[in-house]
Amino acid sequence: MQATNCFHCGDPCDRQLITFDKKSFCCAGCKTVYEIFSTNDLSHYYELQAAAGSTPDVIEGKYDFLDNEEIIAKLTEFNDGNIQIINLYIPTIHCSSCIWILENLNKLNKNVTNSQVDFPKKTIRITYKQEGFSLKELVLLLAKIGYEPYISLEDFDGKKKVSDKTLIYKLGVAGFAFGNVMFLSFPEYFDLNSSATSGGEYWLNKYQDLFRWMMFIFSLPVMFYAGWDYFVSAYKGLWAKLLNIDVPIALGILVLFLRSTYDIAFNLGSGFFDSLTGLVFFLLLGKFFQQRTYSFLSFERDYKSYFPIAITRLNLKGKEETVPVQEIEKGDRILIRNEEMIPVDGTLVYGNAQIDYSFVSGESEPVSKNIGEQVFAGGKQLNGVIEMIALKSVSQSYLTQLWGNAIFKTDKVTAFQNLTDSIGKRFTIAVLSIAFIATAFWLFYDPSKAMNVFTAVLIIACPCAIALASPFTLGNMLRIFGKKKFYIKDTQTIERLAKIDTAIFDKTGTITTTQKSTAHYEGMPLTPDEESILKNTIRASNHPLSRSLYDLLKEQNIITLDEYEEHIGKGLESSKDDINMKIGSANFVGKGTSENLLDTSIYISSNNAYRGRYVFQNQYRDGLSSVFQNMSETLNLAILSGDNEGEKERLEALLPKLTPLYFNQKPETKLEFIKSLQDQGKKVLMVGDGLNDAGALAQSNVGIAISENINVFSPACDAILDATKFQQLYSYILASKKAIRIIKMSFILSLLYNCVGLYFAITGQLEPVIAAILMPLSSISIVIFTTLMTNLIGRKLP
Amino acid sequence: MSVIYVLLGISLVVAIIFFVAFIVSVKQGQYDDSYTPSVRMLFDDELVKPKKTSTKEFKQEKIQLNKQV
């Protein structure tokens, strides 16, 4: 039974074993996919990578909404009535076999004319003929071979993400101009003060003006296109009465350009065009390096990424019709199929509801609801079809109204002054005062040199190296963290993370695992026969609690039960020989009321006599105690849970003494809690996982989402931490503090370069070649310094 | 020495050609996905390979996927 793995998906075949074509499969779905591939000459799929497939999981009627013309029009990229092009997101894409099979879709269906996979983004772009085919059939075809696309409300809104390429263009222009200007400066470098009279190279002097004016022409696009953002930013800063780092940079670029133009126009020298273009090129390179996008992650998800596009509504005549979710109104009767998401709050009117709120709360155990009870948006129905009456519209539901809060419209970036800008103010004042003092001195001593000195100071003091320190340090840290499965949205988040003094944790799904739960048995011991019946009874049940308990119980022989009955919403009943067992809720087994309402338990009775119960407990993440112990040394900690107090005692035993624990917190109260801490001047880190933490994550200074599987959706946040790295959270915070120290060290280093440069500038001996050497030298040494130091930190990180 | 004009002109033209090529390639999205093409180039003609023997045993009609589901 063991050691057999499915030929298609690689999962162990312990529940079910299907042998087909001398190969074993774990389920009928996997077998069907294999059959499809092999009959269509596509079995090469398995040669590229063994066990590459994923189990198909198609639910009847799930994609009926794709027949709706309006929805098709919104989803497709191109649609002329004959040919349609669509971009679909397929989370299961994971290997080269996936690329191969998806790009050979036309072998499975002739109507597909072209399909192209973008592996890092996990998307596929399909062109197909509409005649005799449809989007729905295409999606079903994909789902049938195990590549079910994920279509959410977000796609429907039609906000196509256009990646901004202007920085690359600007970098290209600056690099192009920099290279050519350097090339044109070569004669000047090698033959510095020569002129026809002092016996310099004749032809260089003859064509000197041509070279110089060509440099001027090359610097124009750098000034007015590539470097233009610095002028805009400096102007905006001054307008807001802020001296940001772009002010001295813009001043430096402007003075470089004007002085150089003046120099060549009056034949005073070759100008500083090489320094000018080089400066802009390096600055843009820093900006480019700072960007690190994880194309497979999104940090901006709201409830729309989770919600379906359309839902089945039952109209007055009792007929089913598909409508977009936004059109659901109060009082509509809607139908939720198995595995479908509930889009609005409502009252259950038909069916057995087993609702999984893990998207919302991180709680993995589904909740049973009876007819007449309220169900909330964001839950996923797990047990057949239900019908409900909507009580609110989508945007006003319990969960979704959280996004009406103003915090989701403010940008954390604007509210935060980064380290570089905070030094910018002092720097600008210092540079300007040195420039004026030096000019005043020279006006008195030798007025002919005064203007020369003034411009030279502004040129050489241009804080290129300072402006590069932060992008390269933090950009490199971002990459290092990314390799350690800590994915951070932008470099500024690292700066904010380094300033954290309070850390708030959500409980379920954040400090507990969702993958495994533990259960212990309370009550009279079961006989071996009873244990065997128990295991065999729950084997047949699909209830999530049964599944968990099945995995926890020890191996038993498979026996045939005489009787087996599943009472939905209550429990299981089975008998073998003379033993009759009931497994399920306290009421069902005749125990009367539950002992403790806060626990999740399975009760067991044998021949109508209560035997005992299995109590399920949250499994806390490994090393939770030590993580909290370490963090409590420098940070204030608290737990903010949406759950009841059932786990309070266990938590108190695990966590450092006097860690505040707050239970029964609603999404809004979590947000308010963070806000009140911030009003006290605290810098708050929020660690959460579910949509109910979304408000708190947005409000906090840094919001980190913990994710068991980074391909599955996590709420909008500043960083995503892979759950396996939870123990390293504190060392990551410490590493970001170290990164800030590196930036400060680089500031000192670049100030030293500035002092050397200022010496030349103040004494009036700044030659273009000195600027041309000093400027790249300081920039490159800063880049090398920060890269080496951050790699050193990275190596120490576990 | 007026050949310098020709040389400068040539160097400029070459530089601009490369610059334009760069801009065009960025615009076409050639740098958007830097991974998939590296995999794609490795599988090309496997489909024309002669059929393997294993499928004989359960020879049956092709599964019709484009039928209405």
From TrEMBL, chain B:
InterPro entries: Cyt_oxidase_maturation_cbb3. It comes from the Bacteria. Pfam families: FixS. The chain crosses the membrane at residues 6-26. Keywords: Membrane, Transmembrane, Transmembrane helix. PANTHER family: FIXS PROTEIN. This is Cytochrome oxidase maturation protein, cbb3-type. It comes from Maribacter aquivivus.
